[in-house]
Amino acid sequence: MEGLTKRMRIAESIGLNQEYDFSEIHKMLILLALFLLLIIAVGVAITFGAYNISVSDVYRIVMAHMTPFGDLSSVTKLHNTILWELIIPRVLLAVTVGTALATAGAVFQGCFRNPLVEPYILGISSGAAFGAAMGIVFSDFP
Known about the structure:
Distance between the termini: 66 Å
Strand content: under 5%
Shape: flat
Largest sheet: none
Order of helices and strands: HHHHH
Radius of gyration: 24 Å
Structural class: mainly alpha
């Protein structure tokens, strides 16, 4: 018991006992910053890759498909196909899967009130392994 109080005094002396109270504005600013970071990460993931597509071509292709003012005449059809049919769907799928996994982890942490919860608690890992094995055994893919 003596050692615990000594450690608590040391922690207090270096300022580790402070609790941070985030207001709603701080929470919104953090969420906004994380959303902007996600947008930047998506932009970087779309721009860089195995194919040498310039940033201006990426911008033109995305704007041509997202707005009625875009013009694809200055961009090659190969770059348009690679970006719009291969790269962008994969990046959006990665964002969606990451969001789903983060949400599932947050739900687990909330349900069990344990920040170190793992999927083995309810047998989720066993169910996922069984589903993967069934998919491998009964796949009809060539």
